[in-house]
Design brief:
seven-stranded mixed sheet; 261 residues; ProC C-terminal domain-like fold; 12 helices; 2 domains; alpha/beta; elongated; Rossmann fold; 7 strands
Length: 261
């Protein structure tokens, strides 16, 4: 069983821990004492210092925030061995940047999971660095399949992955928020509005996944000529919802590129 060290026990680090804890031997480095205590109570994992985690792990997952990334890389410099695999989930941090900062030919895989990792329903984009092997990519895929699904992409597409699925839950939650507000304005209680919207989103997503049909086909099925759905969609189309989404994703991709190192 591979020994995995997770550096950073925040929302995503703990989600990964929850998914892989039964399949891998895991150690965690978390400096915040309150958070470390929470991880111990929830998962039975006692936090260790960075040097201990780095030395005792075959795979090191860097799950720290981008603003803390350089500090962690600096502390890891000289501690990472060539027989170890580094997996980074930091947005905007390229494989090349990590390789250069390490000062040696280390094996790096970059991953971009999203927030549904917390319920085992993430989608994670994965790309290998210059020195990573096909076995390393397979290993990364096995790890992130524990918290959802994975896709393998060229690193040049990671900004697009960030814009679509990395940030995507934010768009879905905003849509749900707006739909709930509209439902309440029609006299539905907050509880009923939340239940109707949540189940409609859940059921629609499941149907889209299981039917094997495109979203356009399914939309056609629920849209009767002259019916209520068509009336609502006419408003969305009038206000160019499709164009708005294209612009939103383009803005997210542009920002991801600006933040890249």
């Amino acid at each position: 069983m591979s020994k995995i060290g997770i550096i950073g026990g925040g929302n995503m680090g703990s989600a990964i821990l929850a998914g892989i804890g039964r399949k891998f031997t895991v150690r965690v480095c978390e400096q915040d004492a309150r958070r470390a205590g929470l991880l111990k109570r929830r998962f039975g994992v006692k936090a260790a210092d960075l040097a201990t985690v780095a030395a005792g792990s075959r795979i090191i997952i860097l799950a720290v925030k981008p603003q803390n990334f350089d500090e962690v890389l600096g502390r890891l410099r000289g501690r990472v061995r060539q027989d170890q695999l580094i997996i980074s989930i930091a947005a905007g941090i390229t494989c090349r940047y990590i390789e250069q900062r390490s000062g040696q030919r280390i094996r790096v895989v970059r991953a971009m999971p999203n927030l549904p990792a917390q319920v085992g329903e993430a989608v994670t984009g994965i790309c290998p660095g210059k020195f990573a092997t096909s076995a390393d990519v397979k290993t990364a895929r096995q790890i992130f399949n524990c918290i959802g699904k994975t896709v393998i992409v060229d690193e040049r597409l990671m900004d697009a992955i960030t814009a679509v699925s990395g940030s995507g839950p934010g768009y879905i939650f905003y849509f749900a928020e707006c739909l709930e507000k509209a439902a309440r304005s029609m006299g539905l209680s907050p509880t009923m509005a939340r239940e109707l919207v949540t189940q409609t989103l859940k059921g629609s997503a499941r149907l889209l996944e299981r039917s094997g049909e495109g979203a356009d086909v399914l939309r056609g099925r629920v849209t009767s000529k002259g019916g209520t759905t068509q009336a609502a969609l006419a408003v969305l189309q009038k206000h160019k919802m499709g164009k708005i989404l294209q612009q939103a994703l383009a803005a997210a991709k542009k920002r991801a590129k600006e933040l890249s190192k």
